[in-house]
Amino acid sequence: MNLPLWTVSGGVKHFEKISTSNRSFREYYDTPRNLFNSTYDSIFGLKWNGGRVCNPHDTMDLASLKDCVNEYNKQGIGFNFSFTNICLKEEDLDDLACNFVLENIIATHHLNGVICASKVLRDYIKTNYPKVRIIWSVINGLKTAEEYNEACEDEQNYLVVLHPDFNHNPKFLDELTHPEKIEVMANDACVFGCPYRRLHYTMLSEYAIQQAANPIIPSLKELDGTKSSLYKTEYGTGCIAALNGYVRDNRNILSFSDIDAMLDRGFQHFKLIGGREYDWKTFETKWFENYLKRYPARKCFAECGMGN
After folding, report:
1. Selecting from 1.10.357, 3.20.20, 3.40.1000, 3.15.10, what CATH number does the domain 5-303 have?
2. Residue 2 burial (CB < 10 Å; 0-12/13-18/19+)?
3. Which of 230, 209, 239, 233 is nearest to 220 (CA)?
4. What is the largest CA-CA distance in the chain?
5. How many CB atoms lie within 10 A of CB 234?
6. Taking the model in full, what pTM does it have?
7. What is the three-class DSSP state of 39?
8. What is the pLDDT of residues 185-201, one digit of tens each?
9. What is the DSSP letter of 54?
């Protein structure tokens, strides 16, 4: 049976729920198969963070973080740290906390990796830890099939994340020559064609750097007036596009039939986002149960002749 290989957001924030769900699934169905293949997240205060806000109440100490990742690894599940800061400089590569995580948590298991958006950071990781998987982030803003094909052919990249605006563009998808190395975001709810993506990613990257230097800061608003002109208290960390009148119409979200079509095209890797933004109950009922349990059940019914 041709099923997606899933990575799931919220591996730290929802650690207990996600890891328990997987164990329960395996025990109930008496199967060695996991619900998902990897998870991703990060913790508050790490300078290399980017792409999302890690709040103080969602964090854990480094010893507990190591235990968390080890538990996933014991289940045969990889853990990818979202080190997607796009504002890093050479001097930021010496950060003690991030290097501790890289050396003592990420590099200790072959299934673990780093979601990366900085060539400076990627080169540093591959030079010092060549076996660590690099997932080339959507934050890089690749725009053409040629750029995606080139990124997929780069041996440093284990996977390349597809911009969700291309999810329903069959012509574009057919131009991708390495679909097996593409990771598809299945439930992206951002504004289609958002003109603020790069600005927002930059804001969040600079926020992470400030947050690492000032770990007691709980809110982006408290950083207003710093050297960065990008910090605007009226935006905070929310969706800039929505605050400027754009509508989230959910057009990038994949249906089960869309996933079928993607699999037929050779795409294997799919990604559930939003684990950090949603509370567990919402994330579980809206995305986790739907894609990770109902979709495989639908495929099973179809293959044994019980489908439509």
Report:
1. 3.20.20
2. exposed
3. 233
4. 63
5. 9
6. 0.90
7. strand
8. 999 988 899 998 888 89
9. -
